[in-house]
Design goal:
This protein has helices at 17-36, 51-57, 83-93, 136-152, 167-177, 184-192, 199-208, 214-225, 229-236, 243-258, 304-307, 322-331, 354-366, 380-390, 400-404; strands spanning 40-41, 47-49, 67-69, 75-78, 101-105, 108-110, 122-131, 160-166, 265-267, 281-287, 296-300, 315-321, 342-348, 371-373, 392-398, 407-412, 418-422. By secondary structure, the chain is α+β, with helices and mostly antiparallel strands. The chain binds one RNA strand through residues 1-3, 7, 10, 53, 57, 60-61, 63-64, 79-83, 109-111, 113-117, 119, 123, 125, 192-193, 273-275, 293-294, 297, 319, 321, 347, 349-350, 378-389, 392, 395, 397, 399-402, 409, 411, 413, 416, 418.
RNA sequence: GUGGGCGUAGCUCAGUUGGUUAGAGCGCCGGAUUGUGGUUCCGGAGGUCGCCGGUUCGAGCCCGGUCGUCCACCCCA
């Protein structure tokens, strides 16, 4: 309810400490896994020239962007995704860099659309990319990072799975089915949403958009329903243009199996991805229960760098948003309990000990400990209560008697045990 | 952008067929407890019932609009 005069903008989130804790937990996990794979962190500006997105996705995307004209008459967009920025950044400097380039980022991204569950107007998205390597090992490496990112958060093969495909393989198969070259993009678009369409609607679109007859549509459905590379090879493997694509997909899957990630991976030709710039292997991560939106999506985009004016370099990467992931973690009970914690709470028993308490607090802080104390003179009982609320591990009690005999009393708040610490140790 | 459900305290909610001063639990603040916390007991603060308008003698409750939120479309970084 909007009790405050100024309401938060729809689709945007506040992060009070108890919510910020989950955000940190997720981002720190992402960062650990990235580094484990040798990726380096980068970032770019949240505002970019509007043309950066129009260039590779078409004018329609402008309707889903936060955009405006700045005081210098420049058309500006708040970044809706990171990949074009990465392409732009590398375009300026990739020539001098050793390949492959392994970079990751966790940008806050924006889009102007009506919010729904798992879909806000702002989110943090983990982006991981390998640039300058066109072999399937890079594709496998990137997917492995995405899978490990989820495993790091406590999710397992029982919770989520990757569905993988390859636009080159799908193109070859569609040509075999009878889709003409100029109709491939239209066919991709229909296949991308075919799971969400009722059967007759899908058939109608395949007829009108992809120009397929009923027999071809039946063959296509048969193809899309095929699970496993062996079955696909048995049915379509004797076509000259399909065989090498199947072989590549086989190598990709075998690489992931060699990593021990086989249980997470399923070949599924219905995975196409919406973005226009993907050129090869594409994948999405889903929760096994199928209750949520895709957790993560990515793939190979070998022409994007050249398209934005850079060195022509092959690239593969993914984006994983924090919103759907947060819901999945909550559903599986994997959100860590929020707890405040501080190393020491210092209690001057009477106001006379306050200067000594301040001195000790600073000594301990200089040593790297977290230290809190009451900001005004209070009864010991009150201060103890405050110490408990702060989550203090240890309370240091400074009474007149204690200080007189040259020590402070350290109380362990979990066990209640107390012991003396000589002031000489806190000098 | 289209259609629908829902908006009562910081949070989760109750509130009889419209009836006069709007409630609970948790949380928050304080006291019991001026050298010892988490328990317990007692007390307190906090709401123009999302907002605007309408119907009515009377609206938290009915009607319209609006904003927010959720769901389904659209779209999908």
């Amino acid at each position: 309810m909007a009790t405050s005069e100024f309401a938060r903008l729809p689709g945007f989130r506040d992060f009070p400490p108890e919510d910020f804790a989950l955000r940190s937990h997720v981002q720190e996990s992402w960062r650990r896994v990235s580094r484990r794979y040798g990726f380096l962190e980068y970032d770019g500006p949240p505002l970019e020239p509007l043309e950066l997105y129009v260039e590779k996705s078409g004018e329609e995307i402008v309707g889903q962007l936060y955009n405006f004209v700045d005081k210098g008459d420049r058309a500006i967009a708040m970044r809706p995704e990171m990949t074009p920025s990465l392409a732009r950044i590398l375009g300026d400097r990739s020539r001098g860099m050793s390949k492959p380039i392994r970079w990751f980022s966790m940008p806050q991204l924006f889009r102007y659309e009506r919010q729904q569950r798992g879909r806000l107007r702002e989110h943090f998205q983990w982006n991981v990319d390998i640039v300058g390597e066109d072999g399937v090992a890079a594709d496998a490496e990137v997917l492995a990072v995405a899978i490990d990112g989820l495993r790091e958060l406590g999710l397992s093969a029982a919770d989520f799975a990757a569905r993988v495909s390859d636009r080159r393989l799908l193109s070859a198969l569609l040509r075999v089915v009878g889709v003409t070259e100029d109709r491939l993009p239209a066919a991709f678009a229909v296949i991308d949403k075919i799971e969400r369409l009722p059967g007759e609607k899908a058939a109608e679109l395949l007829r009108s958009e992809a120009r397929l007859d009923p027999e071809q549509i039946a063959t296509l459905h048969d193809m899309l329903d095929t699970r496993g590379l062996d079955d696909l090879a048995a049915r379509f493997g004797d076509h000259a243009e399909v065989a090498p694509e199947l072989q590549r997909m086989r190598e990709y899957v075998e690489t992931l199996e060699a990593m021990g990630l086989g249980p997470y991976v399923t070949v599924d030709l219905r995975i196409v991805r919406g973005l226009a710039y993907y050129t090869g292997i594409v994948f999405e991560l889903f929760d096994r229960k199928g209750e949520l939106r895709a957790i993560c999506g990515g793939g190979r985009y070998d022409r994007l760098l050249e398209l934005v004016g850079g060195e022509p370099l092959p690239a593969v990467g993914f984006g994983m948003g924090d919103v759907v992931l947060g819901e999945l973690l909550a559903d599986r009970g994997l959100v860590p309990q929020y707890e405040r914690s501080v190393d020491y709470f210092i209690v001057p028993v009477t106001p006379e000990q306050r200067p000594e308490a301040l001195r000790i607090a600073h000594v301990l802080r200089d040593r790297g400990h977290g230290v809190v104390y009451a900001l005004r003179d209070q009864a010991v009982g009150r201060q103890m209560k405050a110490a408990a609320k702060e989550g203090a591990q240890t309370v240091l009690l400074l009474g007149p008697d204690d200080v007189a005999r040259g020590c402070v009393v350290a109380r362990d708040m979990s066990t209640g045990e107390e012991r003396d610490i000589p002031l000489s140790e806190l000098a």
